[in-house]
Amino acid sequence: MEDPSGKSTAQPKAPWFDPVCAILMAVASLATAWCSYQNSVWSDLSSDLATQSDKLDRHASMQHLEAGQVQEEQMLLWTEAMDATVDGDDRLAAFYTRRFADELKPAYEKWMALKPFENPDAPPNPFVDSLYTPRFATEVRESRAAASRAEADSNTAGHHASDYLSNTVILAMVVFFAGTAGSFDRRVVRWSSLAFALVLFSFVAVRICMQPIQ
Q1: Is 69 exposed, middle or buried (0-12, 13-18, 19+ CB in 10 A)?
Q2: Contacting residues for 99 by C-beta, under 8 A, at least 6 apart
Q3: Dihedral (CA of 154, 155, 158, 159) sign
């Protein structure tokens, strides 16, 4: 740049200025590659965990549905057994009770021990929560708990991926300001541009050091 008299107004740069800018750009570029890699890894992990959570939840739902179907069948058998008992047909009642599933047998025995035909305080049937444990109850509970954990881990991994992605945006700004700092004629503008790049890089460097590595 020249003033009206034809003399250049460009203020000279310190000899170390351009090398510092070049080194900062190189380090920022390497950091960008590292953050991009971590973003990809954490994103893949988040996706895998989300898929795992969905599979566990669907498996638990299928087991819950099957348990409900088994309970409905057992309720029909129990109803027939009660009808036969009321009619005094012990042989027919025994025919049905022998076909009770493993979930119903202990519940039925506990229910009969309460003398339901004589005790008005006894539960109306053996399928109440205090007596009957549905099939796959433990498996369903464990699968849903595992699905919740996998979903939480997926959200955490997605958060880490987003953090690393934001790092790449900040590092791109570092490369821009460090790359353009040397092109300004005025010393104060050059220094301001480089100083801003250094501040941004220091911020993102500390942030990267505090983030988990996959």
Answers
A1: exposed
A2: 77
A3: negative
- Single out the residue of 104, 108, 82 nearest to residue 93, CA to CA: 82
Q: Is the pLDDT of residue 186 over 80?
A: yes
| Count of CB atoms situated within 10 Å of the CB of 31 | 20
Phi, psi of 103 (to 5 degrees): -70, -30
CA 98, 103, 106, 111: dihedral to nearest 10 degrees?
Answer: -90
Do the beta carbons of residue 157 and residue 45 sit within 8 Å?
A: yes
Q: What is the mean pLDDT of residues 152-164?
A: 96
What band does 153 get if pLDDT is binned at 50, 70 and 90?
very high
Residue 187, pLDDT > 90, answer: no
Per-residue pLDDT at 7 exceeds 70: no
Q: For residue 62, give the 3-state DSSP assignment.
A: helix
Residue 125 near residue 111 (C-beta atoms within 8 A): yes
Distance of CA 128 to the CA centre of its chain: 35
Rounded Cα distance, 113 and 39, in Å:
62
Under a CB-based contact definition with an 8 Å cutoff, are residues 190 and 160 in contact? no
Six-digit token string for 32: 């960008």
**pLDDT tens string 8-54:** 566 777 788 889 999 999 999 999 999 999 999 999 999 999 999 99
Q: Are 24 and 197 in contact (CB under 8 A)?
A: yes
